[in-house]
Write a structure and sequence with these properties.
single chain, about 240 residues, alpha+beta, 8-stranded antiparallel β-barrel
Length: about 240
């Protein structure tokens, strides 16, 4: 009888120890899971709160207005007609800014200033003038990549406007009189841009301070109020910093 009681008591103690171990394991696992959840949540919060802004210089519009546009314009004008305007790029500056609204969405703002010279000289008249362009565009970048990050390939629908201010003087050689020729031209457009953002030093971590980036876009195509169809090759060639 005593032997049976001892066996039952031993089994009860053993079962109680096993049950207690299971409870401990469950509590430990639960704590580990909670810690992992906290770590993951912290990582997500760090990723969203870190490097949400970027600012840089975009050389794409400068290349377009200083080189591509004057070359195409002058090429389309008949070379044997001295009365046709000639266009020459003088100066261009474009600044770009993004704000990360979500893990893979940026709000993009571009603002630029461009200066070009226009001229012609023939037997009856001589003209010299300047064209100043003020540009502003706002769009949303949507990134397409395998991870939740604002980098890699993006598509950006945007709206924009450009104000062209022309100031010039024409000399009539037979009368030696000057005529001022000043005009303002507004252009509005909607378009879509496709390109890539390369975060050069992302391997340093989300809390690594400022990081350089590089942007390049392949094409900007859409509809313009003035020219109907808007096609701009290499619209973005930018470098800057993320912070």
């Amino acid at each position: 009888m005593k032997k049976n009681i001892l066996i039952i008591l031993f089994l009860f103690i053993l079962a109680n120890n096993i049950f207690a171990d299971d409870i401990s394991n469950i509590v430990v696992d639960k704590n580990l899971n909670n810690n992992n959840t906290t770590v993951n949540t912290n990582n997500i919060n760090d990723a969203l709160s870190s490097h949400r802004h970027s600012i840089g210089m975009n050389f794409g519009p400068t290349i377009f207005y200083m080189l591509i546009a004057p070359s195409v314009f002058n090429l389309l004008m008949p070379p044997n007609d001295n009365g046709n305007l000639k266009l020459q790029g003088d100066f261009g500056l474009d600044l770009t800014y993004t704000f990360r609204a979500a893990e893979k969405i940026d709000i993009n703002v571009d603002a630029g200033f461009y200066a070009m010279k226009t001229y012609y000289n023939n037997t009856s008249a001589e003209y010299n003038g300047n064209v100043y362009g003020l540009g502003l565009a706002i769009g949303g970048r949507f990134y397409f990549n395998g991870k939740d990050r604002a980098s890699g390939f993006f598509l950006m629908p945007k709206v924009g406007t450009t104000l062209f201010i022309t100031q010039g003087r024409e000399l009539q050689k037979d009368t030696s009189t000057y005529t001022n020729r000043n005009t303002n031209i507004w252009d509005f457009y909607i378009s879509g841009e496709m390109g890539f953002r390369i975060d050069i030093s992302r391997g340093l971590g989300v809390n690594s301070g400022i990081r350089p980036f590089f942007d390049i876009s392949i094409l900007d195509i859409g509809f313009s109020y003035r020219s109907i169809i808007r096609i701009v090759p290499l619209p973005r060639f930018a470098i800057g910093i993320l912070f």
